[in-house]
DNA sequence: CCAGCTAACTTAGTCTAGCTAAGTATTCGA
DNA sequence: TCGAATACTTAGCTAGACTAAGTTAGCTGG
């Protein structure tokens, strides 16, 4: 571990708490949690199976079962069956779910855009320039299903 | 909302899920949660009152009461009383708590530093350059007690 | 000066969201 | 064809968030 790596790690660590705080503020007064919004987003381009959803969101199957139960209870998704394999449960967005996804996403993006509006052009450029590095740092691709 | 602001907001929104996933992976196999580590960090430079802790962590008082109950149960903090105002409860780190904080912080920083080690010099520079903008974006100072 | 309001916590009860262990039904492979 | 593996659900635990309501202590205006 070089000094630079450690220093950056410390600096980022200091800010992680604020990221969590911002996420909470972004979700306040929304009728949907950020986890739910995230799952609805996974269903945007067609039905998915439970295993796929669990893998993509980095949780165990029972956690996803409970999450889908809540979303189904609220009428945002519907369970279905896979023709080829009778063990498989598929999940798809309902019309309500699609609306809720669009609304939630819009509010989230509006919330973030407001904050970007408070930055200078130079600061926005700096953030944009850091995005590829952020992707590598977060291991964006590692969490995808095979 | 300008096109740039909206675009950046969308890009960041896409990555927020991965931030949450990384945080979960960083906390896996640790004997302490990231919330607990965060609260212990607030106590590093001396005792704090419950209201101060709740404000700093953006939660309501009952949430902090429950959190401190868990930390006290595990022997990481101790409750005390304020001489001047008998309503006030103070919280301080125990020796065990201080050790646990150091260990947890070290693991977190190690975890992040490993990821920074996978970046190029240019990428690390880009991240470092974005830190001040990130602070403004996160509203780092807004969450402090007056 | 004390009665009543406010402030600082705690308790009780609810919800989301994570986990493991164990149960059921179905598929696949030797 | 039968036994192991796979896909999911159920049951039960914990952390961590909330509101509403209770307790105790400080403060203040008539």
Automatic annotation (TrEMBL), chains A, B:
Q: Which Pfam families match?
A: MarR_2 (PF12802)
* Organism superkingdom: Bacteria
Q: List, for all copies, the residue spans of the domain called HTH marR-type.
A: 1-136
Q: Which PANTHER family match?
A: CONSERVED PROTEIN, HTH-TYPE TRANSCRIPTIONAL REGULATOR RV0880
Q: What is this protein called?
A: HTH marR-type domain-containing protein
């Amino acid at each position: 571990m070089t000094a630079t790596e450690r220093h950056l790690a410390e600096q980022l660590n200091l800010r992680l708490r604020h990221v969590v705080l911002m996420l909470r503020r972004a979700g306040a007064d929304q009728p949907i949690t950020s986890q739910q919004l995230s799952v609805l987003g996974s269903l945007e381009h067609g039905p998915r199976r439970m295993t796929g959803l669990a893998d993509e969101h980095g949780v165990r199957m029972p956690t996803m079962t409970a999450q889908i139960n809540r979303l189904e209870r609220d009428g945002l998704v519907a369970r279905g069956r896979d023709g080829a394999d009778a063990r498989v449960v598929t999940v798809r967005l309902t019309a309500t779910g699609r609306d809720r996804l669009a609304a939630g996403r819009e509010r989230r993006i509006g919330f973030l855009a407001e904050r970007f509006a408070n930055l200078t052009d130079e600061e926005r450029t700096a953030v944009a320039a850091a995005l590829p590095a952020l992707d590598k740092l977060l291991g964006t691709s590692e969490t995808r299903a095979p």
